Amino acid sequence: MYDLIIRGGSIVDGTGAPAFKGDIAIQGDRIVEVGTVTGPAKREIDAQGCIVTPGWVDIHTHYDGQATWDPQMAPSSWHGVTTAIMGNCGVGFAPVRPGGHDFLIELMEGVEDIPGIALAEGIDWRWEHFPEYLDALEAMPRTLDVGVHVPHAAVRAYVLGERCNIDYAPNADEIAQMAELVREGVEAGALGFSTSRTLLHKDIKGVHMPGTFAGSDEMLALGLSMKGLSHGVFEMVSDHLGDDDEWMWVKGFAQETRLPVTLVATSAGAYQGDKMYNIAEEARRHGMDIRPQIAGRPTGVLHGLQSNFHVFMGHPTYKAEIAHLSHEDKLAAMARADIREAILGEQSHIKQTLMGVKLEDLLWQVFPLGEKPDYEPDREQSVRGLAEAAGVSPMAMMYDLLLRDDGRELFYQPLGGYLSYNFDFFRRNMEHPNVLFGLSDGGAHCGVIADAGMPSFILMHWARDRKKGEQFPLEFLVRKLSSDTARAYGLNDRGRLEPGLLADINVIDFHKLSLHRPEAVYDLPAGGRRLVQRVEGYRCTIKSGQVTLENGEFTGALPGGLVRGGREANILQHAAE
């Protein structure tokens, strides 16, 4: 008798092959049969009218702190993610010396906008060395598996101490110490190493994070420390991927270390003329594995009274009379005609955004989300477009919309790639064969971004709802969200619905799949706030053969843990025997 059978669903198996109707039998934590299953089971799930997919493997998250205290791992677990890889962008919490905790917390708060008070309250620091951090993660059961990169910033802080973010040229002995720490972590099961070379990443004091300006000798030594191991991915975010010099270094690094490299580009130059993709493809033809990461839509800042940002925050009246109030009192105050008149008559003390544009001039790229978010809206749906149609000023329109729905309205501002008011740019990027789907940033940017639901968005928008251009086949998207990301990190025991592989599975009512408007919740330690986005349509999520969520509710099952790099080949061999 099987433990579980999923019957009659449309199976999208993660290989890219056409969907087919069938059953899946599960014994223990493994898929044992796919097709027509005739035997009985302890439990059966009726998947008629649903698609059945592998669980999503999300390679770009920041649950480094949350994974030590939260077994549920929402919001990613709500969205069908069964494996989350963290320690991205060079930030994380190990290795760490006694007394170094606050520095890593302040760095994570500055770079990834995770409330420091929540991290300080939630993390118990049962480790110093990276292998001990892995052991701590492994000791906690959870709804999904987590995997980790060794973060450059923590390694530099451990070796260089207070010099870690100002000394760009450590000596040979210090570089050797850092390399040994990286190798130690990867040998213990880290999935790779991550670093950041973007000026956007700073701690809460505005200091660039350790490693931002690290020299090529340091980077090569850290990469070579992983050479010859059975696994290890090099992940980097960079401002410079539009520059030929950066690419010369990246290709030389990949060729000498023979490591898989995955890149996140923050500059427009990397995308001009498909430069990043063309160079990555050329490198692949020469035996190098270089794979850019891309999101399924523009990363977007969320404006609103529930978020950390809106255009009136810098107005003197708001700062003096409203900013300190509770949400309810803010609404009452801002509803007063005299307050409205005063704020709209003032100039903001915040003169520019990160893009060097006045805040009020951005309102043609700011869109109210409403109850059912539309992430590919027309210009007419922008705050400025709505204002023009109503014959009022854009700032007046923004003010009134900000108070809508008891102040729960949020506004989506794409940070790039949306000047044409369509996703054609993203579609071109997503279809490139070397691209990895990533950048959900689950667990991070708690006050201004809510993109952890990216897998759900990609399915519903790109395979069902898109009206402004071509869609993608469902089978293509499922493969990109599961087997492609799993294989990129050597996780060969998951990502496909095949006998012998882990039973990490989603049963989705695809016609009902829909995203809610993001909302603020105060469920982090010490009452910390974060923006989250719920979803409907996941009939159930199965992790290692156990149903962890059913119709959006946690079942209490916690079969997930830590996935250690280099261990999957033995698991597969054992399963085959």
Instruction: Compute the number of strand runs.
Output: 24
What is the global morphology? Answer: globular
> How would you characterize the largest beta sheet?
9 strands, mixed
β-strand percent reads: 15-25%
| Topology-level CATH name of the largest domain | TIM Barrel
Q: Helicity level, as a percent range? A: 25-40%
CATH class of the largest domain: Alpha Beta
Structure summarized in a few sentences:
It is built from 19 helices and 24 strands.
Explain this structure to me?
The protein is an alpha/beta fold. It has 19 helices and 24 strands. Helices cover 30% and strands 20% of the residues. The strands form five sheets. Strands 1, 2, 3, 4, 5, 17, 22, 23 and 24 form a nine-stranded mixed beta sheet that branches. Helix 8 links the parallel strand 11 and strand 12. The longest helix is centred in the N-terminal third of the chain and has 17 residues. 51% of the residues are buried.
